[in-house]
Design brief:
The complex is a heterodimer of chains A (117) and B (113). Chain A contains no helices and twelve strands. In chain A, strands 2, 5, 6, 10, 11 and 12 form a six-stranded mixed β-sheet that branches. A four-stranded antiparallel β-sheet of chain A has the order 3-9-8-7, with no helix packed on it. The model of chain A has no long low-confidence stretch (mean pLDDT 94). Chain B is mainly beta and 113 residues long. In chain B, strands 2, 4, 5, 6, 9, 10 and 11 form a seven-stranded mixed β-sheet that branches. In chain B, strands 1-3-8-7 form a four-stranded antiparallel β-sheet, with no helix packed on it. Classes of the chains: A mainly beta (117), B mainly beta (113). Chains A and B meet through strand 5, strand 6 and strand 11 of A and strand 4, strand 5 and strand 9 of B.
Chain lengths: 117, 113
């Protein structure tokens, strides 16, 4: 079974600074997807960024980028120019690409990000 | 475009009772998944439905069940509630392809006394 580990339960960053959230995963599969989801205090989770394992290029979405190291099974999220609205729980998630079309996600325990003004 | 709607948002039950939670997916989405979120266990996958068929199931006891209707709306039921069932239950919908993006609702907060 796949597992996802987020080793930082809490992180803090100053507004406008850069922060990196860590995520490692364990799988024997070669084809999969990785995600970062954000869950603000209002609780609705939203997708931040997605990475296909077969793509070597790291995904970027505006101020959010990832460092995907497939061999090391590492998938960190970098948030640049942090804003107060970035404060939330961040979840790393794994999805197999070989489970019959199922979109089941395996989540890490999350990292609570605080942004200080 | 309306998002994923979950009802009720909050509910309190006592041990031994049963509960039904509802999820209306985004229009056009055919896949609905359910997750349980607790402080101790985090987010755990319950089950997934696509076109009224259960496509995948997590490692939960048989007290947890679900179904999907022809309009893609989904319900999950928990019978014989236990204290440990207190959690935020999240529903997510998607088109069902390989885009991988799930759209989540705000959840139903269940408290079991």
């Amino acid at each position: 079974a796949q597992t996802v580990t987020q080793s930082q339960p809490e992180m803090s960053v100053q507004e406008a600074e850069t922060v990196t959230l860590s995520c490692t995963y364990d799988t024997s599969e070669s084809d999969y997807y990785l995600f970062w989801y954000k869950q603000p205090p209002s609780r609705q989770m939203i997708l931040v960024i997605r990475q296909e394992a077969y793509k070597q290029q790291n995904a970027t979405e505006n101020r959010f980028s990832v460092n995907f190291q497939k061999a090391a099974k590492s998938f960190s999220l970098k948030i640049s120019d942090s804003q107060l609205g970035d404060a939330a729980m961040y979840f790393c998630a794994y999805r197999s690409a070989t489970q019959g079309g199922s979109e089941k996600l395996v989540f890490g325990k999350g990292t609570k990000l605080t942004v200080n003004p | 475009k309306a998002g994923v709607t979950q009802t009720p948002r909050y509910l309190i039950k006592t041990r031994g009772q049963q509960v039904t939670l509802s999820c209306s997916p985004i229009s056009g989405h055919r896949s609905v998944s359910w997750y349980q979120q607790t402080p101790g266990q985090g987010l755990q996958f319950l089950f997934e439905y696509f076109s009224e068929t259960q496509r995948n199931k997590g490692n939960f006891p048989g007290r947890f069940s679900g179904r999907q209707f022809s309009n893609s709306r989904s319900e999950m039921n928990v019978s014989t509630l236990e204290l440990g069932d207190s959690a935020l239950y999240l529903c997510a919908s998607s088109r069902g392809g390989h885009t991988g993006e799930l759209f989540f609702g705000e959840g139903s907060r269940l408290t079991v006394l």
